[in-house]
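Sample entry follows:

_____
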Amino acid sequence: MTVALGYLIYVSQAEEGLDDDGLAEILTHSRSYNAAHDITGALLFVQGRDNRRGSFMQLLEGEPDEIERLRARIFADPRHHTKVVLEQGPLDSRKFADWSMSFRNVKPEALAAHPEFADMAEPAFLDRCLRSEVSKALPFLCEFWYSDPI
């Protein structure tokens, strides 16, 4: 029996006061939970300009029911808000199979080569997401992770 494989990508904005320790706690918990539930993926945190809060983009890969259970848990987490699913659907193969949760914490300038995502830490980006004006998040994450230097 073949298990269905799916993915989900969402974005959200961090609450004020989320610091490096808070990010480390999120990452530790994510890696543990995901390993126990056969979920892989990537978490991108883009720092806000001028010490403002930042934004998350996360890719989850795994069995669709497991992904949905995790999405519900994530969306109930008060450490971030304005949570928007950008994409979801079936997946032929995992893009981050070796990672229970790959992680990058970057400055906005790191996204300059990706115009559609360059303003990810800005409220305008989340507004575009809410209006369904952002697409191709999966190709962006794969290209950013595997071809752009950190």
Remarks:
- The mean pLDDT is 89.
- The chain has four helices and five strands.
- The first strand starts at residue 6 and ends at 14.
